[in-house]
Structure formats: structure tokens, C-alpha cells
């Protein structure tokens, strides 16, 4: 008489979802910061789905978006889908930092395109050229969906520097309280030097 041996099936762990930390913005409500991360090592959900969701806010399309890259980044990374796919595919299991999101509200007394160009100039100079990060800018204009919220720009920064060989060194300093403070300081200085009122000659 033969005896059947039962094989125990071990279920694979579910990929960990992203967690989020939102910094206190009570002193600067028009300039906000959040970082996305994983709490554990091991299998993780990537960032692609969460980032692309910003292009379809509340069931309508974002008004505009732009992907900015350092001059040394390989050309194929100019395709957003490719960039996010490669970021997720090359993320080490032990890395817990995912991406950072800044949100800048645009002034209501100026055309939206003026604010867009201003934020874009700052992002290009600070995050892209200085820190060598890829940056996705996404413009939301909530009034198009019947909301009274201010138009704003999301700045999403995958937490690894990018160069000729794709994603490399982790930008952990950007995903920290100090990184947020440095970003706020950079923005404040930028605005102080570029947002001066025009003085009419006497």
C-alpha cells in the first residue's frame, strides 16, 4: 500500500506597497513635500503606476507634463514609460527610498504658463543640473474638473541619480528631512532673485 506525501505550498509574499511621509507645510502651504518609500527589504511594488497616475488626476488629464534629464543621461530615458520601467527593474531589494514629490501652488494673479516656466527653470537648475536627478513636472488645473483648488505643479524625483548608463547612485539625501529643507531653501533663494517686481525708470 502506497502512502501519498502532501507537499506544502509556500505562498510567495505579496509585493510591498509604497508608504508615504508628508512634511509639515504650515509655514509654507504653497510649497509642499512628500516622500515615498518601502518599510521592508524584499519584493516591492514599483513607482511606475503611482507616478503615471498623476497624469490622470480625478478622471481627467493633467494640463501639461515634462520630463527633464541631466545632459549626461542616455537618450532612451527621455521616454517616460521606459524611464519608469527601468527604474523599477533595477531597484535593489534592499533599497527603501522610492521617490520624492514636491508640490508648488501657482499664483492666481498670473497666467499659468508664467508659473510653469518659473518652476521649470528652478527644477532644471537645482534638481537636474546640480543633483543629477530625473524630474517629472506635472501641471494640474483643478478648475477644469470643477474644483476651487489652486493650479499647482507636482515635481516627482526618482531617488537615484541618472547618467550615461542609466540609474546609478541612490540620492538618499533627497529623501530626508534635510533634503526637504535644502529644497525649500533653494526655492526661497530662487524666488528672491527671480521674482522681483519690475521697477519703472524715473
Keywords:
202 residues; alpha+beta; two-stranded antiparallel sheet; 23% strand; globular; disordered C terminus
Could you provide a short overview of the structure?
This protein is α+β, with helices and mostly antiparallel strands and 202 residues long.
How would you portray this structure in words?
With 202 residues, the protein is an alpha+beta fold. Helix content is 26%, strand content 23%. It is built from four helices and eight strands. A six-stranded antiparallel beta sheet has the order 1-2-4-6-5-3, with helices on one face. Strands 7-8 form a two-stranded antiparallel sheet. A hairpin with a 2-residue loop joins strand 7 and strand 8. The chain is globular, with a radius of gyration of 21 Å.
Task: Describe the secondary structure blueprint for this structure.
Blueprint: E1 19-22, E2 31-37, H1 48-53, E3 64-68, H2 80-89, E4 97-105, H3 112-130, E5 135-140, E6 152-158, E7 160-163, E8 166-170, H4 177-194
Antiparallel strand pairs: 1-2, 2-4, 3-5, 4-6, 5-6, 7-8
Strand order of the largest sheet: 1-2-4-6-5-3
Q: Mean pLDDT across all residues, rounded?
A: 91
Number of strands: 8
The span between the termini is 109 Å
Q: Considering DSSP H and I runs of 4 or more, what fraction of the residues is helical? A: 25-40%
Separate helix tally: 4
Beta content: 15-25%
Largest sheet: 6 strands, antiparallel
